[in-house]
Structure formats: structure tokens, C-alpha cells
From TrEMBL:
The protein's name: Phage integrase
SUPFAM superfamilies according to UniProt: DNA breaking-rejoining enzymes (SSF56349)
Residues covered by region (Disordered): 1-21
Keyword DNA-binding: yes
Keyword terms, alphabetized: DNA integration, DNA recombination, DNA-binding
Domain Core-binding (CB): 18-101
Single GO biological process annotation from the record: DNA recombination
């Protein structure tokens, strides 16, 4: 009688497990889950990388408060970084330990002392200097710089303006997802209405060429691209200041048209200040400082200026009151009385 074939034994071979993600990749994933900005992601990853290299490539899990304090002390004493930079590095390391390594049972997390932030007065241009600086700019860079000074926008708030957020009839600009992911409304200068319409006409012509070439989609925040598949190509969602070249999204890998690069406007403002003979250090943010100061000088209420700037605390706005007095605190020097 034939012997039946034995049942096949269970295979002892198992599919090899995929290696766990690298620490920096885990850090990127946690940052994206919390919807942090791309530049915050890059900054945090870079600080964690420097921290690991500083301690001879030891794993952060094997280090703690002493290693963090040693690294922060190195930044302050040997690298001479500003207190804000030192606190930025500290924030990146605490995010790593709390969110990625889940070090909730380590009491030293709350004991790492932050560097004392220095109180610096902002650089402010006079109205004459602001006028002469803007006269040295042309094209889209002139218009963007004029909005920084005329509307009090931050650099990226200006470059990230969408067509739908320009309110010509109400003379308003709607700032979406500004600092702290807050929306606000600010003034649209009367003198920029025609230049802004011309800029939008150029942007529309560029957008129509993109559509004809099978492109024309822009990046949309959150999950809007999934909820509204056609919105990415709609005219209202296009950038007011589109870039002349296409670029690849570093997160999704999709090639699309982004807005103007902030480095280009920063360089243009710096060169314009040099040509205008302005000796003060000038960056696009100086124009925002000048907007706030000149608004207060014109007699506008500080709460109104706070709202236009998007400051969460009026104390931040009050720093601009240092120029409201004539001379040094508005007093007469005894030397002038001789």
C-alpha cells in the first residue's frame, strides 16, 4: 500500500525585516506630522546632525543633559553664536528627545536652561532713505520691496501672496498662514494698485503658457489638493510673484512653478541700499521695521499697528516707539546749551 506523501513542513525561512528608519528620517517624519514648515525641518535636522557629530557620532539615546549643555556651551563660547541661535539649537534637541526618542521619563528635559535673549533695537530707515532705496529697485523686486514697506509684510508673507488674497476694491491684502500659522489683513497702498495689476497680468500670461504646456499646478497647503483637485491650476491660487523657472518640490518630488526665491530679493535690497549710499545694514525685514515706525510717527494707534504687523503681544510692537522721540529720548543735551 503506497505511503501518502507527508504534508509539507512549514517554511522556517522568514522574510527579512526592513531596517528601521534612520534617526534623521524619523525626525523628519515627526516634524511633518506636526505640519512644521520646511525650513524648520531643515533647521532641526541640521542641528541634530551637528549635535551627533560634536559628540563623536554617539547615538542621542546614549546621551543626556550633560551632552546637550556641552554642545550649547560650545556654540556660545567657541562659535560665538547669538542667544537666539543657541535657543534654536536647544529647541531642535528637545524636540528630538521628546517627540522622536519619547524621553518622557527624563527629568532633565525641563532643566536645560535657555540662553538669555538680548534686547536689540531694530534698524529703521528714515522716509528719505526708504524712498531712495526703492528708487534703486526695478520690476518685481521693486514691487515686492514696496509691499514690505507699504504693507508691513514679512519677506515670505510677501512672496507667498496668492492672487485670491489681493483685495483691490477694499485696498487690503489677506496674509494667509503668517507667523504662528495665523491669518490677518493689512493695508494695500493706493500707489501700488496699478503696478500690482500689471504684475498680475504678467503672472497670468505665464500661467496660461504653463497650462498650454500641461503644467500650471501650484503647491497647496494641507490637503486642499486632495479635496479640490482642480484648485492647484485655478488662477486664484497662483502666486502673485511666480518664479521664472520650474523647480522640484523637496518633499513630494513634483516639478512645478514656485514663487520668487527669497535670496534674490534679499540680495536686491542689499545692493539697492549700497547704491543709495545707505550705511545701515539693510535687509527686506528693515522695510517692515520702517513701516511700523513710520506708522506710529504718523499718529496711528499702537494697537492698529500691532494688528497690521500680526504681533501676538503688543510688547513686541512697543519696541518701535523708541524712535518716536526726537533725538536721544527727546531730551536736550547739556552740550547744546553751552
Amino acid at each position: 500500500m503506497p505511503v501518502p506523501d507527508p504534508e509539507p513542513a512549514e517554511s522556517t525561512t522568514t522574510t527579512p525585516l526592513a531596517p528601521p528608519p534612520r534617526l534623521l528620517d524619523q525626525l523628519r517624519e515627526h516634524i511633518r506630522v506636526k505640519h512644521y514648515a520646511l525650513r524648520t525641518e531643515r533647521t532641526y535636522v541640521e542641528w541634530v546632525r551637528r549635535y551627533i557629530l560634536f559628540h563623536g557620532k554617539r547615538h542621542p539615546r546614549d546621551m543626556g543633559a550633560l551632552e546637550i549643555e556641552a554642545f550649547l556651551s560650545h556654540l556660545a563660547l567657541e562659535r560665538g553664536v547669538a542667544s537666539a541661535t543657541q535657543n534654536q539649537a536647544k529647541a531642535a534637541l528637545l524636540f528630538l528627545y521628546k517627540e522622536v526618542l519619547r524621553a518622557v521619563d527624563l527629568p532633565w528635559l525641563t532643566e536645560v536652561v535657555a540662553a538669555k535673549t538680548s534686547r536689540r533695537l531694530p534698524v529703521v530707515l528714515t522716509q528719505r532713505e526708504a524712498r531712495e532705496l526703492l528708487m534703486q529697485l526695478h520690476g518685481a523686486h521693486w514691487l515686492a520691496a514696496s509691499l514690505l514697506y507699504g504693507s508691513g509684510l514679512r519677506l515670505l508673507e510677501c512672496l507667498r501672496l496668492r492672487v485670491k488674497d489681493v483685495e483691490f476694491e477694499r485696498r487690503e491684502l489677506v496674509v494667509r498662514q503668517g507667523k504662528g500659522s495665523k491669518d490677518r489683513v493689512t493695508v494695500l497702498p493706493e500707489n501700488l494698485l496699478l503696478p500690482l495689476r500689471n504684475q498680475l497680468a504678467q503672472a497670468r500670461a505665464l500661467h496660461e503658457r504653463d497650462l498650454a504646456a500641461g503644467r500650471g499646478a501650484v503647491w497647496l497647503p494641507d490637503a486642499l489638493a486632495v479635496k479640490f483637485p482642480r484648485a492647484a491650476r485655478a488662477w486664484g491660487w497662483q502666486w502673485v510673484f511666480p518664479s521664472r523657472v520650474l523647480s522640484v518640490d523637496p518633499r513630494s518630488g513634483v516639478e512645478r512653478r514656485h514663487h520668487l526665491a527669497e535670496q534674490g530679493l534679499q540680495r536686491a535690497v542689499s545692493l539697492a541700499a549700497r547704491r543709495a549710499g545707505i550705511d545701515k545694514p539693510c535687509s527686506p525685514h528693515v522695510l517692515r521695521h520702517s513701516f511700523a515706525t513710520h506708522m506710529l510717527q504718523a499718529g496711528y494707534d499702537i494697537r492698529t499697528v500691532q494688528e497690521l504687523l500680526g504681533h501676538a503681544d503688543v510688547k513686541t510692537t512697543m519696541i518701535y516707539t523708541h524712535v518716536l522721540n526726537r533725538g536721544g529720548r527727546g531730551v536736550l543735551s547739556p552740550l547744546d546749551a553751552l
